[in-house]
């Protein structure tokens, strides 16, 4: 029953995003298409984090590291492809998304393996601080490494290419991003329902019990952390291509916080929660930004309100609302 | 000579980090709360000091203001928001205190704008003095070291010798127990939180006198304070002191020494860039080593 | 008597100045219920934790089915059939009954790294799980959340999960704790069922249950074994009467 209702809400959220993108395109609103693309990309970053945070209970405050690594993979490969400098081992960079994505994901996966192996020696509040610190380390590295722009970041003028598509057209790039988001949703849905997903969620809820039935927590958590990082890195690569620009701010603690906000705003451990969260965040940025330059203060107050008074996030609110409605109907 | 100066710089940096980390670790030890907004209180202290010092002309009043305003802001935040979070999981605490950062940062930006403020030191504190051995060293940095040492001593006395200290230690050991003993927990928590905030504000006021005062100055320091706590062990004041000094020394000496080391094996320009990139990662590598050897931190009881 | 299935030799564990386990040796034989009793602070829980691999002993050795298992971690010991059960909150509250039992089946099989196949359509999980659910008397409740079960049903779920591990030994850590008189009676009946599946090492405060169920009893005081024997031997042992049962009276 609940599974069904949750499934319908998921379809509705994803469908709404697609509808907004296509509708805006048909109405000739290129800017709105780009906004929808941004929602899809940031939602994807959140879907990645949600796997670790929502299902695994791993409160990573360092996912900007992977987001940024994905972004820099795109930026660095594209810049080498543009100026012809060989990157390493005679490999000359690439402007093909189909090359860039796997590189971005592998690089982030490797970083996550290292960071995860160290961070998972701790738990609870230590884990939060350690992941945050390692992301900050990469942030400072990016700032002080001048080869790829240092503090100023790295621009590239042409969006990378995808076979058979004109990626510079907003609607075509939206199609690419939304499709990847769809794939990631299906993947994450399957993983959470699989044996692995059962093990992961049991470890979150009752680690002692999981051990008692023969499940070792650390390998399961580390695997989750790596997968989660890879998805977030893919989003980073797409984000770099959306802006045709990468900068150390992709690695910043603020970015980690935002990705986390998408997840929590939408509802922790709900498949489409991060999309709802990212959409709400971008909508607020857009609407409140018109009202006041200091919209982030308003955002902060709203976030506080949600944490203190509406745990469960947006989808939690919606499902609760539906329950209340149904109950009213039943009472009548 | 240069090394001695860098050692003092490292000590000064470490003491400043200790002021930050002590509050964080105290709040976590007693209330079990992770407070991201601790950096915002540091910023509040710095602004309070800058504004009061500029309008009254007295740096000392500015410092008093940094303590008082940060403590007041801390107590207010504790009563309005933080106390609703003690029984929540860490995720809620992270999100709520992240939201507090947004509110504090944007609020400060709204009041003071984006331009950094600068504090002017009184003549009594500015200038350099000559240390035994002939080293010229800025007097104010020595003052910061001294303040850090005094605070460390004061905290130790507070926790080991006073009634409040007994309650704090009881709170760390067993939260229900102190309630049963008739201690007003709500009041105790507000006091502890305000104390931590005051220390952060003091750090902000002091550092604001040698750097610029601006929005967003708190978070990089906050994250360093996290590194300090992870190294020292959470909840331990001693760990905070040792961790802070380690981090301060490692960072300062690393930045001073590593580019020079690299210059022996590569040309100067790339040694500078590579060296400074590596030096900026040094304290995190230190943290990684501590995690490998003692995941609970040097003075932590257990994870 | 045949060879012991679980054999503990010279186990020692101190925490600072406190010696929680002091040279404890103990054997569990096939088919028996062996009770471990002792006053509070006698080191019963510490002993169990060392057996399941949650904490490492300072000295001594544990052999399971004739093999030394000192170097195995908790999960590996559980997969070998050393099942610890009936602890406080030992089910996964947000999972359904079926998911809980499937988890135990998956864990016992050691195959949790399967990512894409929905667990619910995996006959290698659902089939055995159905069997254990039926065995424990929970048929019809498969889709209920564990958090919604009654106390008695939760015990049954725990039994189903314990069975799914296909244990060679049950380690039961105070199964009667927090149960009313009626619950304790029911559980006593269930335990005498369980012993047909595997021998039981039972840590328990409830003396009635211990004397009703146990074949042999080991008495632990201040981390030391002061007596081991049959129920009547223990009842008659003057040392036990003085240092332990005496306190009860």
From TrEMBL, chain B:
The keyword Oxidoreductase does not apply. It is a multi-pass membrane protein. Keywords: Amino-acid transport, Cell membrane, Membrane, Transmembrane, Transmembrane helix, Transport. The keyword Cell membrane applies. It is found in: Cell membrane. It comes from the Bacteria. The chain crosses the membrane at residues 12-33, 40-57, 63-82, 94-112, 139-159, 188-210, 222-248, 269-293. Belongs to the binding-protein-dependent transport system permease family. LivHM subfamily. This is Branched-chain amino acid ABC transporter permease.
From TrEMBL, chain C:
Keywords: ATP-binding, Nucleotide-binding, Transport. GO terms for molecular function: ATP binding. InterPro entries: AAA+_ATPase, ABC_AA/LPS_Transport, ABC_transporter-like_ATP-bd, ABC_transporter-like_CS, BCA_ABC_TP_C, P-loop_NTPase. The keyword Isomerase does not apply. Residues 6-247 form the ABC transporter domain. It holds the Pfam family BCA_ABC_TP_C. CDD domains: ABC_Mj1267_LivG_branched. This is ABC transporter ATP-binding protein.
